[in-house]
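From the pipeline queue, job 12 of 40. The input is one protein chain; the requested action is below.

Action: predict structure.
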Amino acid sequence: MKLFSSLHAKILLGYCIVGGLFIILLSSALIQFRSLEKELEEQQKIVVSYDAVRHARRFEKNFLLYRRISDLREALGQMDAAVAALDDIQGSGRLNISEQELTSVHAYRELLVALLDASRGKRASQDLQDKLYATGSLVLQLGEKLDATAKANVAAALSRHDSDLVRAICAALALALIAGVLVTRSVIKPLREIELSLLRVAKGETGRVDGPEAGREVESLTKSINDTIQEIEVRQESQARSSRLMALGTMLSGVAHELNNPLSNISSSCQILQEELDELPMMQARQLLGQIDHQVLRAQRIVSTLLDFSGNRGLQRRAENIRGLVDETLLLLQHQLPKAVYVDVEIDTNIQIDVDRMRFQQVLMNIIKNSIDAITANGTLRIRAWRDDAPEGKGATLEIEDNGHGIPTEYQHRIFDPFFTTKPVGKGVGLGLAVAHEIVTQHGGALVVESSAISGTHFRIHIPDVENLETHD
């Protein structure tokens, strides 16, 4: 079993990495603050010691001036505090105090004691006062040096803390960015691949989504999408079959009429041959047999067209004469065309279109039938075609225009929706235009409509050539 085989695990890993980096950053900052706190405590001890020495020197001078024993005792008290602080500093080992410097501090205190003893009996000797002054000066210099050293250590600690904190933040941000990029790529990349695969499905290049191996969630999503695509294909095929069945019913009445003519001609020719076979010249008999063969072939083509239309096969595109397709469709629908409707076909007989003949004929039949239903008395149905270079690729464009009552504006965005119709109940189920739009889309083309109550409805179909469609893709 692979580690982190799901997006949930990868995202959780990313959060854990970010959380760990946050904890490390806080720990580093806490350690730095502790170190800085110790430096400040050391500085405070040195300040106490330095202040005590300065106060002791001040009380010493007051005693020499005013001869007050209380000043000398205050000086001794201050030195006791200074000695205690220096001993504490020396014990921590954070500042380097030499034995000589520490001895001078103790010597200064002993000289103060000696001065106190001497002052109780008589005036202290000048030699004792000189030693006290010299030793006091050394102790004061020691305090100044320790104070300067402590301040430098605090400044260095602050600088070190700032540098370490900046480095820790930069490292944490870099690692968090790397983790974020890795996790994002593990999530976004498979979704992007699914998106591209869906685009290929939309273009008809493939029938299913190829899911990358990026976790159980992605595999589940891919499976759901493929199941949905399969269900849509099944429903679309069902809709197409329903539309073909309705169109087939429309065709059957036309086919029955079309078959009646060749069958009548065959029957007439056979009756003539039966009645006058012995009297007819051989040439005329051959002509009648040729007529019978021609009418049989005509009936065979009609039946073949019907079988092709009702069949269920894949898209088979080849170059077809668009004028022939239109004429054949109009022939099948001629019995449904009101006599008052004028049909104007403006199509060059040399224009070719790359289509599946049966499927595209279904498109023509559905759209023309829709236009016929919209035309009132003395209407016009105009069909034109030309070669055009459209966004879908260079190919053939067919326009079917009627001057009927048009499609209401509020319904125009829904006319290609399955089962949507503006016709009365029983006059239509709303599959004709939906199936036409689907077939045109399968050809890589476009079907658009423009309609108004004044000018009627214009359906424009553009089918790109096969080679241009491949280049466009």
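Job complete. Strands lie at 318-321, 342-346, 352-355, 380-390, 393-402, 446-452, 456-464.
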